[in-house]
């Protein structure tokens, strides 16, 4: 694989950057995309995307706190996207997880659907939605009706796809004319990536591609999207959740410091929600009318 398979046609500009945990990271000097090569096998990814993939303990209290954070983040996303949504809009979320965003969108009167890789998460989402609105699948397999959706949301998904260009081209066809796609993904331009370098917590096996604003904008332009804009990706997090993330994906110095802080602070403070911009960015783009 070279960068031309993912975004641009300048394969000669591709060069090796570094290796981490057995994953080899390459970069395109033209569009600034970074990507894994070779990609992990299907079996390796399937083992990662088990029912244990989602962070934190499985106690009722911990699960409740996680859901509350995700619902709060979903509300932040809906507030950003509400101006792009007409009343009774038909909305699709790719990689919807346990369905927190869809539940909040449903409560605002939108018609919602989801496509989720994990059958366990899809079942949880349908239970929360009280209907079978979420199917098991991915945008890498044809299953969507053309010109159907007013909005397609892909939050923390594109970095997981083997062929983001092919998948987004497919999602483009599923949007109605003038419809909007909203993408959230870790950004190579983020402060956390500049601070941590090759130890950035987003360099993990299941993340196959890493975008900058330049590379993501170029990809969307190539596919025919217009009115491309970027907004800060605020998420609602707390120290308990951040600590669980750094335990799962260790970073030298940062992980032990966060563990120490987590042990020091009272539980109430560790679970205090805060809206932060950490490593991601949101891109919003429109299909030609």
What does this protein structure show overall?
Helices cover 36% and strands 25% of the residues. It has helices at 3-6, 42-48, 60-81, 100-107, 119-129, 164-174, 191-196, 213-222, 239-248, 254-264, 267-270, and strands at 14-20, 23-28, 34-36, 90-94, 111-116, 134-136, 149-155, 175-186, 209-210, 226-232, 235-237, 274-276, 280-286. The strands form 3 sheets. The chain has a 7-stranded mixed β-sheet, with helices on both faces. A 4-stranded antiparallel β-sheet has the order 1-2-3-9, with no helix packed on it. It has a two-stranded antiparallel sheet with strand order 11-12. The longest helix is centred in the first third of the chain and has 22 residues, at 60-81.
Largest sheet geometry: 7 strands, mixed
For the biggest β-sheet, the strand order reads 6-5-4-7-8-13-10
Task: Report the span from N to C terminus.
Answer: 33 Å
Strand content: 15-25%
Helix content: 25-40%
What is the average per-residue confidence, as pLDDT, rounded to a whole number? 91
Morphology call: globular
N-to-C series of helices and strands: HEEEHHEHEHEEHEHEHEEHHHEE
Tally the beta strands: 13
Low-confidence stretches: none
Which value, in Å, is the CA radius of gyration? Answer: 19 Å
Topology record:
Elements: H1 3-6, E1 14-20, E2 23-28, E3 34-36, H2 42-48, H3 60-81, E4 90-94, H4 100-107, E5 111-116, H5 119-129, E6 134-136, E7 149-155, H6 164-174, E8 175-186, H7 191-196, E9 209-210, H8 213-222, E10 226-232, E11 235-237, H9 239-248, H10 254-264, H11 267-270, E12 274-276, E13 280-286
């Amino acid at each position: 694989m070279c960068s031309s398979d993912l975004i641009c046609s300048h394969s000669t500009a591709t060069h090796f950057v570094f290796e981490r945990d057995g994953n080899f990271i390459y970069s395109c000097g033209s569009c600034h995309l970074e990507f894994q090569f070779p990609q992990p096998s299907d079996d390796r990814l399937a083992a990662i995307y088990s029912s244990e993939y989602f962070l934190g303990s499985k106690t009722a209290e911990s699960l409740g706190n996680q859901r509350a954070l995700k619902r709060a983040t979903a509300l932040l996303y809906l507030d950003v996207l509400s101006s792009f949504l007409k009343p009774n809009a038909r909305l699709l979320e790719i990689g919807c997880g346990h369905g927190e965003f869809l539940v909040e969108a449903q409560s605002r009167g939108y018609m919602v659907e989801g496509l989720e890789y994990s059958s366990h998460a899809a079942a949880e989402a349908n239970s929360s939605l009280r209907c079978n609105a979420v199917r098991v699948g991915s945008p890498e397999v044809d299953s969507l009706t053309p010109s159907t959706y007013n909005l397609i949301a892909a939050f923390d998904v594109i970095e997981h796809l083997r062929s983001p260009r092919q998948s987004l081209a497919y999602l483009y066809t599923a949007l109605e004319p003038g419809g909007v796609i909203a993408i959230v993904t870790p950004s190579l331009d983020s402060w956390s990536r500049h601070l941590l370098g090759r130890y950035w917590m987003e360099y993990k096996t299941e993340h196959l591609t890493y975008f900058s604003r330049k590379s993501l904008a170029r990809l969307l332009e190539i596919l025919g999207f217009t009115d491309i804009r970027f907004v800060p990706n605020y998420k609602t997090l707390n120290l308990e959740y951040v600590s669980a993330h750094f335990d799962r994906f260790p970073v030298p110095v940062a992980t032990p410091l966060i563990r120490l802080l987590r042990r020091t602070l009272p539980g109430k403070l560790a679970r205090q929600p805060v809206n932060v911009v950490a490593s991601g960015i949101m891109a919003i783009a429109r299909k030609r009318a």
